[in-house]
Amino acid sequence: MAAAGAASAELVIGWCIFGLLLLAILAFCWIYVRKYQSQRESEVVSTITAIFSLAIALITSALLPVDIFLVSYMKNQNGTFKDWANANVSRQIEDTVLYGYYTLYSVILFCVFFWIPFVYFYYEEKDDDDTSKCTQIKTALKYTLGFAVICALLLLVGAFVPLNVPNNKNSTEWEKVKFLFEELGSSHGLAALSFSISSLTLIGMLAAITYTAYGMSALPLNLIKGTRSTAYERLENTEDIEEVEQHIQTIKSKSKDGRPLPARDKRALKQFEERLRTLKKRERHLEFIENSWWTKFCGALRPLKIIWGIFFILVALLFVISLFLSNLDKALHSAGIDSGFIIFGANLSNPLNMLLPLLQTVFPLDYILITIIIMYFIFTSMAGIRNIGIWFFWIRLYKIRRGRTRPQALLFLCMILLLIVLHTSYMIYSLAPQYVMYGSQNYLIETNVTSDNRKGNSTLFVPKRCDADAPEDQCTVTRTYLFLHKFWFFSAAYYFGNWAFLGVFLIGLIVSCCKGKKSVIEGVDEDSDISDDEPSVYSV
């Protein structure tokens, strides 16, 4: 009873910590969205939607270490179950985590296929001043209906794709249909939800290849390199202003005698005047930033930024080297594309796969490392989206600017992060498959020991790390794994996606090394809608 009470107390403390984590996530999401949203175009509904979607993305990513912790917590290090962890309690814990995934993944489907598209199209129609609210809602619902149909099709396909084949090859069509419905009922809708989530994860993989791979190289190097000197930029800007003014005076001097300017000179004059307005705008921003206390404060934190940059690049190298060795292991030792390149255990050790078992000996270092990697994956994704912007093939749709981001761009940002977070779980599994499946669980195996004092052999039970050969009743598989490997063709696509991720990271690393320092007011030249009353949003 005392052991059960202590275990219950520890679980309560664990859930309290998780609750505090949720509050921290909500606070971070509110600060992040308010930091980047446009002050002139902010809307209550779009702001709430962006904060809620970003929070769901972060909470879903936090569920992976919780899942691993719970399956590991039920067993002792010697391979035996804890006193309180009987079959019913274990099943309750597994069901709780599974229902958590059901809830969060269902909310993600709702956000991606209904709520975010509806809010996006609602505000797209709002740009037209002649449109009434009723017309806006009707038009938004009309476009959102297309997304809802896609979601329904994915659920139907996932529900009725047979994962098992009927044993009787001579079955009638009715028996085959009946078998599909029985399989759907036995899986409790897991296959349907898993297929839909895997389809979104595939899109998230493309987003991770585009944004996260570049962000993993751009974020650390930007922190290390810093920004250009404000005083030097002001000097350059002043020289540019003088040069442009000289060109304008030269063109205007051609019409002093009353002759009209040629069309070519008129076009050139207009371009020079536009350029002069932009340069003077830059001058005002640079002057404000140079005299700002925030600039002096950031200058004092420069050594800390360099340290963070070095730390982030080391985490990126750990991640990339581990991913390369893991993928190489699959290429050499997996059963091939028909199995989705699934491999149990590790024939080629990678740094992360070696580090996690070492950290498991000191609670909770392994969970801290997994959480750091997941958060790093998300933050580098945010950095990649900020640096690249939101594109549709070769067409740039939106830019992410501090204090200047439109509501539609924020909604796109949150949707992309939702998709990337779905892919995060598979990336972590690729790095440490055995750890993601079983955590730190051990099970007992019989070993025959020959004794010198006694004739004959004696049986000894020794603990062994849980793996694919472990009995089902001795090792509990995480619920994350059930969602990851329902369909082999998705696993095969993720495998090739990992190679593409590594390639884009290397390209991004070369590009980031070759690029110079950023301007302290980057974006002023590009954004034509920048006003002069809020220059502080461009401070570093």
From TrEMBL:
InterPro entries documented for this protein: LMBD1_LysCbl_Transport, LMBR1-like_membr_prot
Keywords on record: Cobalamin, Cobalt, Developmental protein, Gastrulation, Lysosome, Membrane, Transmembrane, Transmembrane helix, Transport
Broad class of the protein's primary localization: membrane
One Gene Ontology cellular component: endoplasmic reticulum membrane
Subcellular location: Lysosome membrane
Signal sequence, start to end: none
GO biological process entries: gastrulation; protein localization to lysosome
Keyword Transmembrane set for record: yes
Spans traversing the lipid bilayer: 12-33, 45-66, 99-123, 143-163, 190-214, 306-325, 367-397, 409-429, 487-511
A Pfam family it matches: LMBR1
GO MF: cobalamin binding; protein transporter activity
Membrane topology of the entry: Multi-pass membrane protein
PANTHER family: LYSOSOMAL COBALAMIN TRANSPORT ESCORT PROTEIN LMBD1, LYSOSOMAL COBALAMIN TRANSPORTER-RELATED
Self-association state and partner proteins as the record states: Interacts with ABCD4; this interaction induces the translocation of ABCD4 from the endoplasmic reticulum to the lysosome. Interacts with ABCD4 and MMACHC; this interaction ensures the transport of cobalamin from the lysosome to the cytoplasm. Interacts with INSR, adapter protein complex 2 and clathrin heavy chain.
Family of the protein in this entry: Belongs to the LIMR family. LMBRD1 subfamily.
Protein name as catalogued: Lysosomal cobalamin transport escort protein LMBD1
Originating organism: Cebus imitator
